Amino acid sequence: MVYMARQSHGAHSSIEQLRKPVSWVFAILFLCAFAFTTAPKPVWGAVMCEAMGLLCVVAGGLGRLWCMLHIAGHKNTALQIGGPYSVSRNPLYFFSFMALLGVSVYSQKILLALIVTAIYLIYYEFVIAGEEKRLTKLFGKPYENYLKSVPRFWPNLSLYKTPDVVQVDPKLMIKASADVVWFYMIIVLLDAIDRLQVAGILPLMYQWPF
Known about the structure:
Blueprint: E1 3-4, H1 14-17, H2 19-35, E2 37-38, H3 43-71, E3 78-79, H4 91-106, H5 110-139, H6 141-149, H7 170-198, E4 206-207
Parallel strand pairs: 2-4
Antiparallel strand pairs: 1-3
Helix pairs in contact: 3-4, 3-7, 4-5, 4-7, 5-6
């Protein structure tokens, strides 16, 4: 079932409006931290980190596309509670987190990965709280019931429900696919940076303990 909004558009909070710019700044800072630092890399650890990182990035990217199939073009007009939104109220953020974690682990700088993970979870706690207030005003009682029955972030697969019909906006899906490609491009960029470090072209300013 899909519940329609009381009005066509809701006013976004300032933290929601800043989400994308902050994400770009965050990504640039991460790349700089990766480019000019190093960490011990035992062979077995490198192989495991790369394998686990790639798996998380692929799963996160596919998960984001799955979410966009359900919500693209309907975010502020209809309350989606089926598919990925039946197991988590914020599956897009969860799959973004999975992809980000994958990129961080792939970097083989475990302490950096832990720092990135902590910053993401803390920041998006505020983003989600702001969205919940706006969506409560937008959808009213149906959203309040949704808040009580579905986890905020971490999925509960036992709640999964498949919607009868999914309306897809092709243009928005193409845009969503382009957004997902960035996660894979970062993996390529990390490999390029690693080669520049090995060649001595990039100066190493700090060594992570692990």
